[in-house]
Design brief:
The structure holds two protein chains of two kinds. Chain A is 0% helix and 59% strand. Chain A has no helices and eleven strands. In chain A, strands 2, 4, 5, 9, 10 and 11 form a six-stranded mixed beta sheet that branches. In chain A, β4 and β5 form a beta hairpin. Chain B is an all-beta fold. Chain B is globular, with a radius of gyration of 13 Å. The chains are: A mainly beta, B mainly beta.
């Protein structure tokens, strides 16, 4: 079992729909990242969370530390939101932290 | 300037070639990272430099040789690669603690798509 699990693996939506992507993890963490990767490679950091909720434009990220779960919500989805969304957790090690990636959620939003 | 610039964007090389990937940032970040990403897989950490010193080497084969000539530049020298090394190579940078690699908010470049023939 992966230390970071995302669901769903693939998601299709019509433009305007509300979208939720989930991330569960099994290790102790100091922070959780939500990343976006468009076809062609570049990765953009959307959020870094250690508690509560953050909002940026149409994107909302929440985290529940006790339940080891985070969600990324996209309101009023648009075709330009089509990308792979990756959850990554920062876990504290003895000598160095580790960044553990989930396998990603591939989102396609159709007009 | 919040960009991490990687060159080249695409590279095709034979197994006997020597090539280098370059990464540059001007955000004052003192931690820089190389990741390898195969198609439809998450990125895999290769190397981390912290304050221009190699802090983490994730048991990467010696045909990959990293170099950090100064705080803004990170290179990855490639020699005698295998076809299975074909992947997207991503560079990233972040703030750094002098005592440990903390993987604070990472800024990624757009990657070099490498094909080894």
């Amino acid at each position: 079992k992966n230390e970071v699990e995302q669901s769903p693996q693939n998601l299709t939506a019509q433009e305007g729909e509300f979208i939720t992507i989930n991330c569960s993890y099994s290790v102790g963490i100091s922070a959780l990242h939500w990343l976006q990767q468009h076809p062609g490679g570049g990765i953009v950091s959307l959020f870094m969370l250690s508690s509560g909720k953050k909002k940026h434009g149409r994107l909302i990220a929440t985290i529940n530390i006790q339940e080891k779960h985070s969600s990324l919500h996209i309101t009023a989805s648009h075709p330009r939101d089509s990308a792979v969304y990756i959850c990554a957790v920062r876990s504290i090690g003895d000598n160095t932290d580790k960044l553990i990636f989930g396998t990603g959620t591939r989102l396609q939003v159709f007009p | 300037d919040t960009e991490v610039t990687q060159t080249p964007k695409h590279l095709v090389m034979g197994m006997t070639n020597k090539k280098s990937l370059k990464c540059e940032q001007h955000m004052g970040h003192r931690a820089m990272y190389w990741y390898k990403q195969k198609a439809k897989k998450p990125p895999e950490l290769m190397f981390v430099y912290s304050y221009e010193k190699l802090s983490i080497n994730e048991s990467v084969p010696s045909r990959f040789s990293p170099e950090c000539p100064n705080s803004s530049l990170l290179n990855l020298h490639l020699h005698a690669l295998q076809p299975e090394d074909s992947a997207l190579y991503l560079c990233a940078s972040s703030q750094a603690s002098a005592r440990r690699v903390t993987f604070e908010k990472l800024f990624f470049g757009s990657g070099t798509q490498l094909s080894v023939l």
